[in-house]
Design a protein that fits this description.
This protein is of the alpha+beta class and 259 residues long. It has eleven helices and four strands, in the order H-E-E-E-H-H-E-H-H-H-H-H-H-H-H. It has helices spanning 9-17, 75-80, 85-90, 102-110, 115-141, 145-166, 177-183, 191-204, 207-223, 227-231, 237-240, and strands at 22-28, 43-49, 68-74, 93-97. It has a four-stranded mixed beta sheet, with helices on both faces. The longest helix has 27 residues, at 115-141. The termini are far apart.
């Protein structure tokens, strides 16, 4: 099978299912996200081979065409997949599981970060978010609008990793962010409001929107036990936080003048 004359997705699935060494087929990408596939979307497929097996399909690892992308792995290799691939597996569809549900459980496990890993990720991304947020506001203050917008856009990526880590979930790819939040909202966040705020920040580097969002994030992060990461910023937090409401003098009433 070549990239010039690719087998169709349906034909390949049938061929793979007939191979006794293939113990699993897992579909990822747009076709695994309901409503996201277009006429341009190919089928991204993990082909899982039994550990120690020698299958002719192994030679197709990395095959790419306009219709079909293949990743051929052993069971052990599939279990170790993580990093950038983790979200892809999280929302993948298991088409074939000859291991009595083991592959299905592996897929489900990718969607839940361990408590220690989630805490480490959240602390690191909180600091990175704060850094880009601070640089954006400082650049805006100092008359560098392009730099301010670029730093604001950078901050959003770190922020999303932080928010999803706080919920012990891998961050979705940008393409699937709205899809993910619509179906699986982040606890305590209004999806429509959050996405609109991110749009203002990435589109125009809106300093006010950045500060208001940071104020909410700070409260959430402190409640989750990450106060030390924030406190390390010291006096710089003053620039990063929402502006304090103007002080209003208390209106004097007739009763205040009475003895």
């Amino acid at each position: 099978m070549s990239a010039q004359h690719p087998m169709s997705y349906e034909a390949f699935v049938a061929r793979a299912a007939d191979d006794p060494d293939v113990v699993g087929l897992v579909l990822k990408g747009s076709h695994a996200h309901e409503g996201m596939a277009t006429r341009y979307s190919d089928h991204d497929l993990y082909v899982v081979i039994a550990d120690g097996a020698v299958s002719g399909l192994s030679a197709l690892d990395g095959f790419r065409s306009a219709r079909l992308d293949l990743v051929v792995v052993t069971v052990a290799e599939f279990d170790r997949l993580g990093g950038w691939e983790r979200y892809a597996i999280t929302r993948a569809r298991v088409l074939l599981d000859r291991l009595g549900g083991r592959l299905t459980r592996m897929v489900a496990a990718k969607g839940r970060l361990g408590a220690a890993q989630a805490s480490r990720t959240a602390a690191a991304r909180l600091d990175a978010y704060a850094n880009s947020h601070y640089r954006s506001l400082k650049n805006a203050r100092d008359g560098h609008p392009l730099a301010a917008r670029l730093d604001a856009a950078d901050s959003v990526g770190f922020l999303l990793e932080l928010l999803f880590a706080l919920d012990r979930r891998p961050r979705p790819y940008n393409k699937y962010l709205a899809w993910e939040l619509d179906r699986f909202p982040l606890p305590g966040w209004d999806t429509r409001e959050l996405l609109a705020t991110l749009g203002r920040i990435t589109g125009a580097g809106d300093a006010g929107a950045q500060r208001e969002l940071f104020g909410r994030v700070e409260a959430v992060a402190r409640a989750a036990g990450h106060a030390a990461t924030l406190d390390a910023w010291g006096d710089d937090l003053g620039l990063m936080r929402p502006a304090a409401p103007p002080h209003r003098a208390r209106r004097v009433t007739a009763d205040d003048d009475s003895d």
